[in-house]
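anyone seen this seq b4? input:
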Amino acid sequence: MESLEPIEDGGPEVSGESGDGPIELSRTQLEGLRRRDPDALAAFFDAYFERVYGYVRRLTGEEHLAEDLTQDVFLQLYRSFDSYDPERELRPWVFAVATNKVRDHWRSRAHREAQRAESVERDGAGRDVVAADGAPGSGLDRQELAEHLRAAIDTLPEGLRMTVLLRVYEALSFQAIGEILECNEATARKRYSRGIEKLRGVVGTDLVGGAGGAGGTGVGTPGSEARG
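predicted toks r here
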């Protein structure tokens, strides 16, 4: 059985990544979204803005860009609320819109040019993360360990990174992740396992857990609603 859960690290950089678990809206609030009821919209914003911003920022690595893309996400969601079905789970839809906005940005010409410029500046330099043989648990406090783990997540390829973020920070089921990333549940599980294996190769098992994602000090079990 899966045993990975939202990271508890003494406070991630973005409050939306706190790992406290998603705040769900009531049925009345969900129905109010279709009417664009001000109270329902306010509740939705409070519940999701920081979480979506944290997800987008983690994928893009840029605060201002993440702010712009997050605003675009919420504008699209606002425009689509009149067709929203309250019977439909809200979180996967929200994060699917966010994921597509990031992908659209990555496909844009401006992003490709920025990436080329950044590549020249880096001149092939790798990211500054601690390797597994660097014994990240020695002499570092929990916040420093969490920073190493977040840096390691940032090095994952796009598909693996999205899967790990949605599973660990948002506690989404593999079925929901598959819907968001446009793949089947089995593929989502495989991407997650590959992502966790790569993280263990960078930061070791102290932060990431045992084989197959079976426990660990940095990452534990998502809420029962996320079990896939």
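The radius of gyration is 18 Å. Residues 118 and 204 are 29 Å apart (CA to CA). kinda curious what u guys think
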